[in-house]
Amino acid sequence: MNVQVLFFASLREKTRLHETTLELAAGCSVGELWSMLVERFPAIEPMSSSVSFAVNQEYADRDQVLNDGDEIALIPPVSGGSEIPED
Q1: pTM to 2 decimals?
Q2: Based on C-alpha coordinates, what's the Rg of the chain?
Q3: Contact of 75 with 5, CB cutoff 8 Å
Q4: Which one, of 87, 32, 84, lies nearest residue 63 by Cα?
Q5: Residue 85 in domain
Q6: Of the residues 34, 46, 54, 56, which has the maximum number of CB atoms within 10 A of its CB?
Q7: Residue 4 and residue 55: Cα distance in Å, rounded?
């Protein structure tokens, strides 16, 4: 089966990819996909505990089984924002 993987923010920087299509075995889970990507891109491994996943634009757990044609977004932790100064 084929899935489309989208990389955002620091994941995009570390993989140097905006998106890619991958061929996976039937029954592959989000977590298994992540493990494959870590093997291919070791620089993303430190983000393993904090990355979020969305399958077809809905947040997903690592145990969710993927289907042919799914779109998986890899979302790194977001930080920053603006502080409001105290007077």
Answers
A1: 0.85
A2: 15
A3: no
A4: 32
A5: no
A6: 34
A7: 10
